[in-house]
What does this fold into?
Amino acid sequence: MQITREEIIEKLKDILLSASDDPHVLDRCTDGAKLQTDLGLSSVNMLYTVIAIEETFDIRFDDVTVTSFDTFGDVVGYIEKKMS
Amino acid sequence: MDRIYTTDRENFRKYTDASTFDRIVSFGTVNEMWADRVKEYATLTAIEDDGKKYTYAQLEEDAASFRPLLGTGKRAAVLCPNSYDFVKAYLAAVTSGNTAIILPPQLPADAVYGCCMKLGANELIYHPALEEKLATVKAAAPTLPLINITAKADEPAGMTDAKPSDPCVIMFTGGTTGRSKGALLSHRAVMEGTVNGCYGYKDVFNQRYLLVLPLSHVFGLVRNLMTTLYTGSAMYICRNNKDMFRDIAMFRPTVLVLVPALAEMALMLSYKFGKNMLGPDLKYIICGAAAVSPYLINEYPKMGISLLAGYGLTESANLVSGNPDSIGKPKSVGIPYPNQTLRIVDGELWLKGDNMMDGYVNEPEESKTAYEDGWFKTGDLVRIDEDGFLYITGRSKEIIVLSNGENVSPAEVEAHFNAPAFIQDSQVFEDVGENGNRILALEVVPRMPELKGIEGDVKKYIISELEKINKELLPYQRVSRIEVRDTDFERTPSMKIVRYHKCR
It folds into this structure.
């Protein structure tokens, strides 16, 4: 079943909310928001995010490290590509 | 105040069945232990890595084919990522009369060279994946022999004889304060640490361990790898932490050795997806290298998993104490392991014992100041309760001396603020107040899933709850400012919180 970009963003936001230590993280969650500096994700938060994405979308990240992504939009784009 | 405490392995007897307890025996050297285990467990899987299984006999055969390339009586630096090849390099080096200098694989090329020179490496065993890290060594020390771990000698060589006092490994001390030093551990110390990992729980032998910690850290090397081999267990090497749960689903470990940050993450993922992400067979999480929250100790049993906290240092071959009764005493780091003597001087823990290092390599000044009258001064502030359980109350270097002369241990105060389930981590530190005066301040990182039902401003709620705790503290321990962070604290590579030093 095809998943839309909007649906990916919704699910990813849900993951971010549980990964982050900040209840207001979604207020800053734009396409260009940098994961580490703007959204404040630590290395442990990032690891959680990657694992939760794999579990939620049933995809497997290629040979990437948890710091391979710069922005929120990069992650959305990566999931979109993997799901297409 | 000055008190001395002796230790006794019998203190652990009641936590294990009699036949298992009697199998926990001492070996003087790694060579002696390894020879025995290869004989006893020859056909069992020792290591599983990159889709391949290696039996105890195979591992010895591969180590034997590598030994002749190393010579004997040398210091062999080992630069390998977590892999079967690391295990082969380490075992071959230490069982052929060499001292293994374990280099963290994330070191940049200049640091690899610097460590080799400072620690007196006579040769360097490297993994081809890390060859680019040899650039500085090749340029600045062209005569240092570089040995590719995939190389093989024409004829295998057996183990050499070793004495318990012989040097075995040099491990880097980590920690959140001070610069890194190379701690020299003898065969006796490594074996003591290895055996200590067997005390305080029921299922000890023939387990399935999964490795996620770096083998360049003493917790990974001694408690994970060495105790695996001692107990005839199998160790699955997880090469990338992001694959941890996929590896767990496939390998179904029975024991995991984790730092608290990873244990916390695994718990939160399990809650999010409504299933035990750690697999149906997991019985124990051995947790240490940083303070373990009682929240984790109390939550994990709901999934049928015991989380056992412990305490140790690189200088003590990892293990000083382990908690066999986490539920009964969730704030304790457990009972001290045998063959040590503990002394508490003005609250600071001093140690002597078979597990202790022989000093820092080529650091005469540091080696001298680390000891007093032959006792190693840990710098950790502790207390021991009436049942012999040890508690860490702070670090002597982190003590804050207030203007009124009162001494505050941040860790002791943080333990109070960490008590509510909705607090994940906290840090108490000295800061400058609005009037330029020195104040005690608190920052906390909330555990958001525990705050789901809270209506309105969550931060306000957190602060008001923490204010209640603050009021119950001794007057000089009370903080003047509380801040709820939006982000985690900065952490060291081993995931410990980096402490603020705003007033130093």
DSSP finds 14 helices and 26 strands in chain B. The radius of gyration of chain B is 23 Å. Chain B has a mean pLDDT of 93. The longest strand of chain B covers residues 375-384.
